[in-house]
Amino acid sequence: MNQDTRMNRRRLLAAAAAASLPLAVPAWAQHRLDRLVLGGPMASVSNPLIRMVQSDALADVAGHVEFAEWKDPDQLRALALGGQADFMAMPSNVAANLYNRGVPLKLLDINTWGILSIVSRDEGMKTLADLVGKELVMPFRGDMPDIIFQTLAEKQGLRVGEDIRLRYVATPIDAMQLLLTRRADQALLAEPAISMAFIKSRSLPVKIIAPQLYRSVDLQAEWGRVFDRDARIPQAGIVVLGQRMEDAALIQRFEQAHAQALQWCSANADACGRVVAERISMLTPEGVADSIRAVQAEFVTAADARPDLEFFYQKLAEREPGLIGGKLPGDDFYYGA
Asked: Which domains occur in the chain, in start order?
């Protein structure tokens, strides 16, 4: 795809999203699929996909469109490798990892740029330096958030394990429970777990627990400050899988609907919260709505996000190459490049 074609595609997507008008599918490409599966986790990156299913946004291209939730890496791999999903939301490093391991996919866009923060019971906790001599609860040892935190801490001369003690737990739910039961003072969490923690804290009986929680260190702000870049990290987006990679008309239609759905969720946080909570039982409408207001969400095509992604991938690879599959992904990883 040449530069003029890419620019025309971006202008068309932007105009369609702003106007909430459908893109015309070329006559030669008009065909209606029997079924289309959109996969994603219990996280902010999935909100637009759930909205697309709820609003029948792709009814013109498929007779049945469904959302398939993946809850752990094994389920994600099963959906991707088994041909059980056509489009999937996932962390950007996982997309690169799967690509480098031979899974047929292309990255379409990045839409999640800021979900990581440290939640603390200490209102005065504002910077990573404030963690010196303290313990931080960290879900998923060696995963992307852990590596981002360690990279930012050591870039500032802080010795992880000595200046800052890490206490690893299996899941964000475990970290949240330690905070809520006063067995930990700070934890690194991602939305929507952060908003859910605040809601849970407010709902507990005051005489029993009811800890006061605060958003302390925004890791995106730290990223921008430490590396002299914009205060955002390309954390998650959408991939197209398998035979759907060859269907340019379907991809164009999907991207337009996805951009519109993301815009709708951002502008209608309460309504989006209700839609998402209906599909994912562990979430509440209020929690989803609060997380939407807190997350940095922006639709950026993979081609346009590539400079940010490659910088991000390089930083991950310097500490844990396996997070991206051992190397930077090639040109054909980025749809439209």
From this structure: 3-114+235-333 (3.40.190.10), 116-227 (3.40.190.10)
